[in-house]
Design a protein that fits this description.
globular, 366 residues, 12 strands, alpha/beta, seven-stranded mixed β-sheet, five-stranded mixed β-sheet
């Protein structure tokens, strides 16, 4: 890294996979797959500070982060209790891959009374939830869940990708582990794939060991780009949240929209929880179109400023159909149980002017 007499304002990119070994042979060698290169170590400290965590570990994708986070907690014969309202890729990991490794998983409706206590087992080692939920924007109350997990010494794992640390920090609400798809809000420019796991230093070291073995480390250039994106996280998320709130109110009055899912609206089922736990309502919202699936297909073919693409959290506004992207592998019945109706459309609000975005929606809904 640069000396103090020649220190650059922007962190230099160390695009190397080989580093001089310690002359005395002490310590672990620097290597990108080990998560200990200069760019990775600096960014991991910044991410930990944002979440209020002891440590953080960067991985090559959000899916890789979720996998290594859980593999660091459970072993064959253990049990994971998870919310059924999760990203489609996470659901596949929980229902197919973990059981193939001898790990039992139970999915539950997270809003049912006493559902967590009712389904706990002696071998339950982790409770997994996503909040806010992709794509329905439901907001879960972590308080009763964390009370139970702490009582039983079980790890509470929270995927907080939809919120970002600007809007929600799960560790402040009883979580033990936080996961982000860094591809989304943390980077914010639709040009980096990455993930991060945050928690105590001993636990994050366990995650790092899994990452080393499973090969989930990010490329140095991706890490450098992610640090660049992180510098504007606060201003981006605040602008996105403000614009999303305005669009949600506008859509709520449109005759072609049967329902608007945005936690900032008083009509949202979790509005009170969101007001109590979120610092911002976020840049994600969803619409249910009155015309059903046909109207949704027509809508995404007509938007112009919103781009039809399966990602979120960036500077460019995007629209997607969960039944064709994030939740494509679910059955119709599973999507219905998760609150994803046939006319469901997910919107990720970027940095464009709210009036321009509203005009784009108006034309597409006409």
């Amino acid at each position: 890294m640069p000396t103090s007499s020649a220190r650059s304002v922007v962190t230099p990119l160390v695009q190397s996979v080989a580093f001089d070994a310690d002359a005395e042979g002490a310590g672990e060698a620097r290597y990108p797959r080990h998560g200990n290169t200069p760019n990775a170590e600096q960014l991991q400290r910044r991410l930990a500070a944002l979440e209020g965590a002891d440590a953080a570990m960067l991985l090559s994708s959000g899916q890789g982060a979720t996998a290594c986070a859980l593999l660091a907690l459970v072993r064959p014969g253990d049990h994971v209790l998870a919310s059924a309202w999760v990203y489609g890729g996470t659901r596949q990991l929980l229902t197919r891959e973990l059981p193939a490794l001898g790990i039992d998983v139970t999915l539950v409706n997270p809003t049912e009374t006493r559902v967590w206590r009712r389904h706990l087992r002696k071998r339950t080692r982790a409770v997994f939830v996503e909040s806010p939920v992709n794509p329905t924007c439901r907001v879960l109350d972590l308080a009763p869940v964390s009370y139970l997990t702490r009582e039983r010494a079980i790890a509470l794992v929270v995927d907080s990708t939809f919120a970002s640390p600007v809007a929600f920090r799960p560790l402040e609400h009883g979580a033990d582990v936080v996961i982000h798809s860094a591809t989304k809000f943390l980077n914010g420019h639709h040009d980096v794939l990455g993930g991060v796991v945050l928690g105590t230093a001993p636990y994050v070291e366990e995650v790092r060991q899994k990452m080393v073995v499973w090969g989930q480390a990010p490329d140095p250039f991706a890490v450098w780009l992610l640090e660049r994106g992180l510098k504007t996280l606060d201003v981006r998320v605040r602008r996105q949240s403000e614009t999303a709130g305005g669009l949600a109110e506008w859509c709520a009055g449109h005759p072609a929209v049967a329902a608007v899912h945005y936690p900032g609206l008083a009509t949202h089922p979790d509005h009170a929880i969101a007001c109590r736990t979120l610092d911002l309502f976020g840049g994600m919202l969803a619409l249910e179109l009155a015309g059903g699936a046909e109207a949704a297909e027509h809508f995404v073919s007509r938007v112009r400023l919103f781009r039809h693409a399966p990602s979120l959290g960036g500077v460019d506004s995007l629209v997607s159909l969960p039944h064709r992207s994030s939740h494509a592998l679910l059955t119709d019945a599973e999507r219905a149980a998760a609150g994803i109706a046939p006319g469901f459309v997910r919107l990720s609000v970027g940095l464009e002017h709210v009036d321009d975005l509203a005009a784009d929606l108006a034309e597409a809904l006409a």
